[in-house]
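I am sending you the entry underneath: sequence plus fold tokens. Let me know what the token row says about the fold:
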Amino acid sequence: MPLYTVEYKKPIDPEEVKSYIASCQDPRDLFILGIVYLTGARPIELCGDLAKGYRGLRRKDIYPNPADPHNSIIIHLETAKLKEGGSFNVEERSLEIERSALFANHITDYIETIQDPEAKLLPFCVRRLHAILWRITAEKADAYRFRHSRMLQLSRGTGAGDGASESELMYWKGSKDLRSVSPYVAGVPIGRKLKIR
């Protein structure tokens, strides 16, 4: 597990995110906020680390959803193996983001300025990513708080019992260990009642 530097009991809500958008002028910074907010990806999955074998997020990894190109995009991530010799059932994952989602337009606007499909979208180290987020959020959120918040939001859904299942959370998070997602689903209301037939 990463060493957390901020308080995670309070997830990032949309109003807090909107305040970051309002204070942000740089298209690249808006793109970074959008990627970490919408995907909850591990920093190394975004920045990469060639010494550890991770390529990082490339221009070609973000594209219109072939099944619904006008309404959603796909963000394709390489799953990072955090422990030496560790492995995941899903080595790569494709996350679907609706174009109407908060920040989605900042992501698509930014990548349209980049022509090379192999170009790294975050061409710097993980430490630099944390520093950028720390600056933008006035020291209130780092990548791991965004990650924690995304998992909570997915597990809760709209509050009508439509939250993500444990399997869906494991896929989105890039984890094969049920224990890593069980805190997010504990106490979440179930939207149906089981019936013995």
About this structure: Residues 14-143 form a domain with the Topoisomerase I; Chain A, domain 3 fold (CATH 3.90.15). The longest helix spans residues 143-156. The helical segments are 14-22, 27-39, 43-47, 104-111, 126-136, 143-156, 166-173, 182-185. Confidence is low (pLDDT under 50) at residues 1-6.
